[in-house]
Give the backbone structure.
Amino acid sequence: MLEQPRENGNATIYQYQLIRKIHISRALLLLYLLVPLPVLAAGVVWYSWPALLYMPIAFLLVLWIHFVVSHSVLLIRGPLYRKKWRLRFSGVWFGFLPEQHTAYSVIQQVMLQSLWIGFVFIGILVAWIPLPLTLSLLFWHFWLMVPRLMVLLSMRKQRKDVIIKLNSQDISYYVQ
């Protein structure tokens, strides 16, 4: 629990109470991080060596799509939100994500916009790119969005006025 001392009986804006913490087990983390290897092997078997080239290109392209969408949504919401978000590569969190405590509504909006705009962007590219690259883009988009969607799904029956902290080993939900 993060607390600042009270002055004159008034609470500060940094007073949070932990309401839920979801631990990410090492086995689940390892499984998540190893999933791309069999997908890459299947791509090489079905589509030959270009899959080795398409997978890293698709990963970088999907990261870029998520960055642009997230950054744009945060820019519209105001400069205060953008300062809390950074490129992260820890645990299951890859991409442009919050570093600090962030309101659920902000995370929800950014993640849902990234989800559907990512699919739209990949759908537009389908006409001009080879099938293995399209499949690689879809795989990386799903792979990056699964942990983010798990955050949203875990909040389905919870309060919506919470603040979320994404750590490498857990997801913490606080109420102010």
Observations:
- The chain is about 55% helix and 20% strand.
- The two ends are 10 Å apart (CA to CA).
